[in-house]
Design a protein that fits this description.
This protein has one domain. It is built from 6 helices and no strands. The two termini are about 20 Å apart.
Length: about 110
């Protein structure tokens, strides 16, 4: 999921984020560990976006309660939206600021 991971890193970030259990605040310690391991910033943002919007249990609930059309439409809008937002954020934040964020993650226990 590092700098040279390309599409594989994006897909892996989505899979891990979507399969995760628990509330959104549980994603941040995992994201900090990803930073310590050198995961690309945009992939971390994709992971957090997937955790918050594309969770498998939520998708199953939507299929049963709101219908397949709604659930599929929301998923088809969310996936490209998460990717676009992650890449835009990673482009608009300076390299120095991203470096500070990674250094902050290093100091966490």
């Amino acid at each position: 999921m590092g700098e040279g991971s390309g599409a594989k890193g994006v897909i892996l970030a989505f899979v891990i984020g979507s399969a995760a259990a628990g509330p959104l605040y549980g994603a941040f310690p995992v994201a900090a560990v990803f930073m310590k391991k050198g995961v690309k910033f945009s992939n971390i943002l994709i992971f957090i976006g997937a955790w918050s919007t594309t969770k498998i249990p939520m998708l199953m609930f939507e299929f049963s309660a709101l219908g397949a059309k709604f659930a599929a439409t929301r998923l088809l809008v969310d996936i490209p939206g998460i990717i676009i937002i992650a890449f835009l954020i990673s482009k608009f934040i300076s390299k120095e600021e991203i470096s500070k964020i990674y250094k902050s993650a290093e100091t966490l226990k």
